[in-house]
Inverse folding.
């Protein structure tokens, strides 16, 4: 396993990047800056090695473009919290309003923008474990929290992400990975022709502004949100549907029925490269985001990135679940251990 310098966070902390390769030649790169996936390289149907996640060549660029969260571990609370506030045990906590009036991905002080420590490297298992301490009220959330993330590259060409966290006060926990996939390659441009299937028969629609769910669980049948069978991502993305207009495309939570056990949340395929992605989670929801707000800029190896050049499948508890009584909330009791698993597996078709 190769370990290299990846730059700094601007505060004197050095980031490193690990390159993990399995027996098939599939390669995963992860960095301690934001505990992020930098690249995921897989051989396509024509034998060409394709890097299928968007990213950058050094830590400094991740920080310059941190609003995209490319590949990052997001927490303590992924997605949006309305009015940048939560209440726990009758006590209200103010959070950073970094997305209009809402808190998004735990604000600018989230763990996605910090350098994590390397806890352990397991050459035999092809895994790297990173850890970070999030102090009491550091992001506005109560409790000193110890967080671990383990990335494992398996022999069946999957990256398995294992999360673990514990706090000394009652708090919340909702971690996700924010990789942007493009199965034509990270430099493959618009993803609209790639096909997607989501294992959900309902989604949580948004209120007219600020991208906060209303609390309704709406069936996908008969709507542009029906991905119960494979469909091109771009087939209905520009429809004159209020939900698509609100978000400039897909940026919505889909309701899974996995009963808290690891199961398929989505599949995606690019027919040009023959790369098929299988995504698994034990969380109750998955956020489909189609990169609607990516502005034109330079990515890895001089690649051009722009609007809808990648799609995210973010395993999660529902957005704003801490404030919406219609949703189960991810509260974490003091001393209780939070665990979760996400898997992204690749095959050729």
């Amino acid at each position: 396993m190769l370990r290299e310098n990846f730059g700094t966070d601007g505060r004197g902390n050095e980031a490193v990047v690990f390159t993990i390769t399995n027996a098939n030649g599939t390669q995963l790169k992860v960095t301690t800056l934001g505990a992020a996936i930098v690249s995921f390289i897989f051989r396509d149907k024509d034998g060409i090695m394709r890097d299928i996640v968007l990213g950058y060549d050094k830590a400094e660029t991740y920080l310059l473009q941190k609003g995209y969260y490319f590949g990052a571990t997001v927490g303590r609370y992924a997605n949006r919290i309305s009015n940048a506030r939560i209440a726990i045990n009758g006590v209200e906590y103010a959070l950073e309003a970094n997305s209009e009036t809402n808190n998004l991905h735990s604000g600018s002080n989230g763990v996605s923008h910090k350098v994590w420590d390397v806890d352990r490297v397991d050459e035999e298992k092809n895994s790297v474990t990173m850890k970070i301490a999030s102090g009491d009220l550091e992001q506005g959330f109560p409790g000193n929290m110890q967080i671990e993330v383990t990335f494992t590259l398996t022999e069946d060409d999957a990256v398995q992400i294992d999360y673990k966290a514990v706090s000394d006060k009652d708090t919340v926990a909702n971690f996700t990975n924010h990789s942007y996939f493009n199965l034509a390659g990270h430099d493959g441009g618009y993803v609209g022709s790639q096909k997607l299937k989501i294992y959900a028969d309902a989604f949580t629609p948004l209120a007219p502004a600020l991208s906060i769910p209303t609390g309704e669980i709406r069936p996908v049948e008969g709507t542009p949100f029906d991905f119960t069978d494979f469909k091109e991502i771009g087939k209905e993305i520009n429809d004159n549907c209020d939900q698509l207009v609100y978000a400039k495309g897909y940026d919505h939570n889909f309701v899974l029925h996995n009963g808290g056990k690891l199961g398929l949340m989505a599949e995606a395929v690019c027919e040009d490269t023959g790369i098929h992605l299988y995504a698994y989670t034990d969380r109750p929801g998955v956020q489909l985001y189609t990169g609607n707000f990516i502005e034109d800029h330079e990515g890895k190896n001089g690649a051009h990135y722009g609007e809808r050049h990648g799609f995210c499948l973010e395993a999660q508890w529902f957005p704003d679940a801490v404030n919406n009584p219609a949703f189960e909330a991810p509260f974490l009791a003091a001393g209780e251990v939070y665990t979760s698993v996400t898997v992204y597996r690749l095959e050729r078709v």
In short: The chain has a mean pLDDT of 97. DSSP finds two helices and 29 strands in the chain. The longest helix spans residues 59-64. Helices lie at 59-64, 242-247.
